[in-house]
Amino acid sequence: MSSVPSYGSWLPPTAQPPQEPPRPEDGASGWAPWTAPLALVAAFAFALTGAIVVGVIGAIFGASFDSPPPAVNIAATVVQDGAFIGAAVLLASRAGRVLPAQFGIVRTHVRPALGWMAAAYVAYIVLGQLWAQLIDTHATDKLPDSLGADESTAALIAVCVVVTTIAPIAEEVFFRGYFYGALRNWRGPWPAALLTGLVFGAIHVGSADAVFLVPLAIFGVMLCVVREKTGSLLPCIALHAFNNGLAFAVTEKWSAGAGLALVAGAVGATLLVCSPLLPPRAADARALD
Known about the structure:
Distance between the termini: 5 Å
Order of helices and strands: HHHHHHHHHH
Number of helices: 10
Number of domains: 1
Largest sheet: none
Shape: globular
Number of strands: 0
Low-confidence stretches: 1-22
């Protein structure tokens, strides 16, 4: 925190020392905990409505409604990601003006952030491996192919962008930005992190095999830890993009070089998209003090 200057007795009796302006991220303290599940319901409602609209438009142009082509599946997934952001912004607006900083889109100290990201990811990998050994699974991620990534080069590129760039931003803004931020006002960070992780794993029902839901929940909790310890959503978005890029490259059996390029590109792209939303550096300097 910035120190408040000392004022002498020369101040008039009615004068008050100037106060530090409120930080944008402090607006999250006005998010009622009960709005977190409401935001989730709103997100699903928006996503379902959007998917139906996309399906109808696709059907008008000759696409099968029951077995849509990759373009329709990909468009519906993008709409779903937009629904998460829309629901978060809508519920946040109940408490007043909405600013990106309230969701954690602020700068943070790089070295501590990298340390927490590494620690969280190692914990996720270790616990995930223990879970895999416990249930003895050999399942693989089928999401890229379910969206049609295996049908054409254009579809592969589009799915790659959705999975490694769009999804990390949208899911982090909703889950670690709003959902965790609202629940944190209830019982503090740890109950909020556990509940956010459980819900994060559960929403992947249908897009991931059941055996992956527990590791995804663990990843969700670890991302909350990163959010709490760094005070910023950017490390969460970067770590999410890193994980999705790595998983995509492994699933598609890309070479090590191509995989590293994808991971670096995904992390860089997500941070580049978020950069215009960052508050002025003066405001970040106050937040980092």
